[in-house]
């Protein structure tokens, strides 16, 4: 019986470190003859290093497009007089992606707020653009990174108490 409870507890604790390809879908648009899907990781999107991945598909057949040149333009308009506009470019490639059906580029968001992302795809001499707004949150504090360490001891104590109660019930029934 105790082993049946141990496995779900380990799965719950391990879920925070599980990684998936692509991340969270931020944009899915039909543009020209393409279907453009933009993923970001980590989730939620926050200040600091971010992996931006793109999946390009033919709009009609949904086959992946693997022969395009992509440019990302990220722009944040200043919201106060103390800030200045921020612009930077990234060139996602398939070589940078773990999943070779995706194009990926690492970027660094320096400020929280609304960022405009412009995806420009050049394929077969045709240029296709798609624009979306990304909401970038403040960087998470240290309390998030220590959450597993803080919750683990009380969880184990609770499981131990639960186990002891089950053993006592079983011994009372037998006696």
| Helix vs. strand class | alpha+beta
The coarse overall form would be elongated
* N-end to C-end Cα span: 20 Å
Walk across the major sheet and give the strand order: 1-2-3-6
Q: So, the CATH homologous superfamily of the domain at 19-140?
A: Immunoglobulins
Name of the CATH first level of the domain at 19-140: Mainly Beta
Biggest sheet features: 4 strands, antiparallel
Rounded mean pLDDT is: 85
Helix segment tally: 3
Order of helices and strands: HEEEEEEEEHH
Helical content, roughly? Answer: 25-40%
Report low-confidence residues grouped into runs of 5 or more: 16-20
Radius of gyration: 23 Å
What's the architecture of the domain at 19-140, going by CATH? Sandwich
Number of beta-strand segments: 8
* CATH overall fold name of the domain at 19-140: Immunoglobulin-like
Hey, roughly how much beta strand do the residues contain?
35-45%
């Amino acid at each position: 019986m105790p082993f049946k409870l141990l496995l779900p507890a380990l799965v719950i604790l391990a879920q925070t470190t599980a990684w998936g390809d692509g991340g969270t879908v931020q944009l899915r648009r039909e543009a020209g003859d393409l279907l453009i899907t933009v993923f970001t990781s980590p989730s939620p999107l926050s200040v600091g290093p971010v992996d931006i991945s793109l999946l390009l598909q033919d709009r009609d057949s949904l086959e992946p497009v693997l022969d395009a040149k992509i440019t990302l333009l990220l722009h944040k308009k200043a919201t106060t007089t103390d800030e200045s506009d921020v612009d930077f470019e990234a060139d996602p490639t398939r070589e940078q992606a773990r999943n070779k059906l995706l194009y990926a580029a690492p970027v660094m968001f320096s400020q929280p707020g609304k960022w405009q992302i412009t995806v420009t795809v050049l394929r077969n001499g045709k240029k296709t653009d798609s624009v979306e707004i990304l909401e970038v949150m403040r960087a998470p504090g240290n309390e998030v990174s220590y959450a597993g360490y803080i919750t683990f001891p009380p969880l184990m104590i609770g499981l131990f108490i639960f186990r002891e109660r089950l053993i006592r019930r079983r011994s009372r029934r037998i006696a």
